[in-house]
Amino acid sequence: MVEALISVRRARPDDAGEIAAAHDAAWREAYRGLIPGRELERMVTRRGPDWWRMAIRRGTRLMVLDFDESVAGYVTFGRSRWPALPYAGEIFELYLAPEFAGIGFGRRLFSTARRELAALGLGSTVVWALAQNERAVGFYRHMGGRDVGSGQERFGAELRERVAFGFT
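Below the sequence we write its predicted structure tokens.
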């Protein structure tokens, strides 16, 4: 029998390389064909290990899913950036390396972020996703999110629809 230790924990500076690798793989998988290629490449490459190391050192609320001593994914969260929406907390990003998607790890990251936000007194949560990202939209709906807003995001010269999901 093979056993693997799975945990969700706060990110450490020495996780930066593995977070960058998970981010790179997850974004390429999620957004290829949705975000124009040049823009996607620019967005992925700017978030290398140094960027993540600085984010961790600055105190970004960043948790990683540790699968057998390797970072399989991450979630970032904090106070909502959308004062027009009645949600105190926000999950900014939740991504898994593609080989870890679809087996419940996203749910673990999501639940941990919600608990952490609640502990900060931010009990209600908003999450934004590109409307064409069927996997993300399906995930947040499955987690109980209600469509509570929409908007557009610019990627170079192109606009993409995005949707907000609210959780109370």
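The CA atoms of residues 30 and 84 lie 28 Å apart.
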